[in-house]
Amino acid sequence: MSQVPAPEDQGAPVTALNWQEPPGNRWAFWHVADILPTHLVSRGDGPVRPLPFSALPARTGRADLLAVPVARAGGPATTVGEVLDGTYTDAYLVLQDGELVTEWYGSLGAPDRPHALMSISKSVVGCVAAVLIDRGLLDPDRAITAYVPELAASGYAGALVRHVYDMRSGVRFVEDYANPASDIRRLDEWVGCREMAEPGRGEEPAGPRGLYRFLATLKAEAPHGERFLYRSAESDVLGWVCERAAGRPMATLMSDLIWAPMGAERDAILLEDGFGAAVHDGGLCATARDVARFGQLLLAGGVVPEGLGGAGGAGTGGTRPVVPPQWLRRAWAVDADARTVFAASPAEWAFPGGWYRHQFWFRPGDHGDVLLCLGIHGQMLHVSRRTGTVCVKFSTWPGAQNPAYLEDTLRAFDAVGGFLAGREPAGPGGRRLAGVVSGLSRRPDTAPPRPTVV
Asked: Mind listing the pLDDT tens digit of every residue in the chain (454 residues)?
């Protein structure tokens, strides 16, 4: 796997301002708590969900997985190993039917070390919202401002909770990492800066900054509910709403509702903005094994084996629900409305035939539709029901986004699943090169690196 020296070996200090810039990000993504303020997401004191090693036939060992052929987009055929080696992989892990097939860590990582997940965090926040809805604490058809009146003068006035968890509000927010003046870069600055804003600086108010104060500055540009557009601000608003609905901070909600009940092995951490507000859109850091456990939870329809994670709902058939199964059924079940708004968005160019729902991406793959949780700089969770596989990849791409790295890795995971399940690819054919699925930009990340926490 491609590696670069750790910053202490280069004499290059890593700070809160440059922690995502190469080459220091390779060290920083494994040491986020040493650089930035965080909250603990406790695993609790319940049993750990086991990840037994797979008893695969000798021919299906790790070396064979790396040799599985991959039809690279717009280029010559390659192998899974070559894709992983060429895409700044920090760690990768594969489960099939809940068993650990293979895992690998670079020299800076380890099975017990948390790594920055970036926007994979959004999917965990979405599952928190699902549990609160199921328990009657959160109403998807209630106005956001009923929970967070501080947003009454913002573009979120009139938006419903379901609008933000499906990213269908009419709020203007440009998620273009290549543009230093875009809203996502402004969000980064407000989260990472505790200084007072200068009076009269455009429309930005003077005073302390921070995530929640930034959200209150956003304006609407379209009717709520009529479009899909991926925006990190939607997840931040959803997290804020969940906290108000439950009366507890997000780190506690994640712990009590998802992390402990699913049988996590290690505590996770969640970035905060310096004023105590959790960075809901991309602040979670966790181990590869626990991300795989989260993926297995999604693959199983939201249930875990009976006896994991303590009390919390009656189990049936040897399983117990953690995430309400109907939340995941709705997410997987694409309908005309979800496809129509997705097809009209820039994301259709990235994932033709795909959709976005409940803080998850969905993409037609070589072996059926795949659920994806994605984060910038190459964080990926790939869940295939058809092959029974969960694939995790941690990365430190030099740029926030790289369409070729993304598409090649997704194709590699499709190929791994097909190989393990003994299936020949029967994909959609003629897939286009994936663009930037987490924003509006279809350009390379050519702007100077900027601090970001999404």
From this structure: 444 444 444 556 898 888 988 999 999 999 999 999 999 999 999 999 999 998 875 445 556 899 999 998 778 899 999 999 999 999 999 999 999 999 999 999 999 999 999 999 999 999 999 999 999 999 999 999 999 999 999 999 999 999 999 999 999 998 888 787 888 888 888 886 544 444 444 455 555 689 999 999 999 999 999 999 999 999 999 999 999 999 999 999 999 999 999 999 999 999 999 899 999 999 999 999 999 999 999 999 999 998 775 444 444 559 999 999 999 999 999 999 999 999 999 999 889 999 999 999 999 999 999 999 999 999 999 999 999 999 999 999 999 999 999 999 999 999 999 999 998 775 444 444 444 444 333 233 333 333 333 3
Distance CA(113)–CA(30), nearest Å, equals 7
Please state the pTM of the whole predicted model: 0.89
Q: Which residues contact 226 (CB under 8 A, 6 or more apart)?
A: 168, 170, 341
Q: Is the separation of the CB atoms in 207 and 196 below 8 Å?
A: yes
Pairing of β 360-365 and β 368-375: antiparallel
Q: Beta 89-96 vs 99-105: how paired, if at all?
A: antiparallel
**CB–CB of 347/335 below 8 Å?**
no
- Is the distance from CB of 112 to CB of 310 less than 8 angstroms? no
Query: What tokens does 191 get?
Result: 């989260």
Cis link prior to 23 (omega < 30° from 0)? yes
Backbone angles phi, psi at 369, to 5 degrees: -70, 145
Whole-angstrom Cα distance, residue 389 to residue 296? 8
The verdict on whether 119 is a catalytic residue reads: yes
* Beta bridge mates, 278: 272
Catalytic residue among 2, 54, 107, 119: 119
Q: Who's near 33: CB < 8 A, 6+ residues apart? A: 114, 269, 285
DSSP letter, residue 196: P
